[in-house]
Amino acid sequence: MSHLLIFGLGYTAKRIAARLRERGWTVRATGSAGDLDFGDRAAVLTAIGEASHVLSSVPPDRQAGVDPVLEAYGEALADRRLLYLSSTGVYGDRQGAWVDEATPTIAQSGEGRRNARAEADLAWMDLGARVLRLPGIYGPGRSALDRVREGKARRIDLPEQVFSRVHVDDIASAVVSALVQDVPPGAYNIGDDLPASGNEVTEHACRLLGVEPPPLECLEEANLSEMARGFYMENRRVANGKAKRVLGWRPRYPTYVEGLESLN
């Protein structure tokens, strides 16, 4: 029987755990929804020893600049089959150009501002992990439909800005594919087939709900958080061809259109 240890049982990892339990896997996890306390070193080391696979969805500590999982348990993970949920943000701003796994990350190229996520991505790669790089994640309870219903949707006047996204269930299916097959270590981009602007997605959500879209605002008027502002300052299209070829993965929701309609 296969045993998975998950570091960080959050929104995405819960759906991964459910899928694997349906397949007969034993799953243990840290986090508020898990059965392990991350700080209980003896219990976590025992769980690592019992695990055939280890998945981390824990983001790096931005202030300290380190990955908490690698910092605390990196040495114990050396002989495990590893999978890490990273971010396509490691590619930095590409001014709307396509990126794939052959595109150097900002930690590899020295271009742009090095950040904790890019460093963690590289560190997990060095450990031989399968690193799934994820764009904007949406799904039940976390989509443009919810933002429109809650009055939190925005339209930012950045005509050239575009980004990729992925439905949470498509992440889960990609992770299962990476875990149950003997696929090579390395990076895999997991995103849908149609990069698009945030405004297009918001406008489609408004059409589905039969409401008028929010007014168009310039970036300065929007009064965004530093994190959100940084998001809008990056512009790239993420190619998913490697995941399709190597993992045999296909998104159930190939564009935001199918994804939002499934949630409406």
Describe the secondary-structure layout.
Elements (H helix, E strand, L loop, with lengths): L2 E5 L3 H12 L3 E4 L11 H10 L2 E4 L11 H6 L7 E7 L10 E2 L6 H4 L6 H11 L3 E5 L1 E3 L5 H6 L5 E2 L8 E3 H13 L5 E4 L8 H12 L6 E2 L1 H4 L3 H7 L4 E2 L2 H7 L8 H8 L1
Parallel strand pairs: 1-2, 1-3, 3-4, 4-6, 5-12, 6-10, 7-9, 8-11
Keywords: NAD
Protein name: Epimerase
InterPro entries: Epimerase_deHydtase, NAD(P)-bd_dom_sf
The stretches of 5 or more residues where confidence is low (pLDDT under 50) are none
- The CATH C-level name is Alpha Beta
Classify the helix fraction into a percent range. Answer: 25-40%
List the strand order in the largest sheet.
2-1-3-4-6-10
Structural Rg: 19 Å
**Tally of DSSP helical segments:** 12
Structural class: alpha/beta
- Number of DSSP-assigned strands: 12
Q: Give the DSSP E fraction (strand runs of 2 or more residues).
A: 15-25%
CATH architecture: 3-Layer(aba) Sandwich
* Spatial separation of the terminal alpha carbons: 38 Å
Count of individual domains: 1
CATH superfamily: NAD(P)-binding Rossmann-like Domain
What is the string of helix and strand elements? EHEHEHEEHHEEHEEHEHEHHEHH
Major β-sheet profile: 6 strands, parallel
Describe the global form: globular
Q: Output mean pLDDT.
A: 94
Pfam families: Epimerase
Keywords: NAD
Organism: Erythrobacter litoralis
Protein name: Epimerase
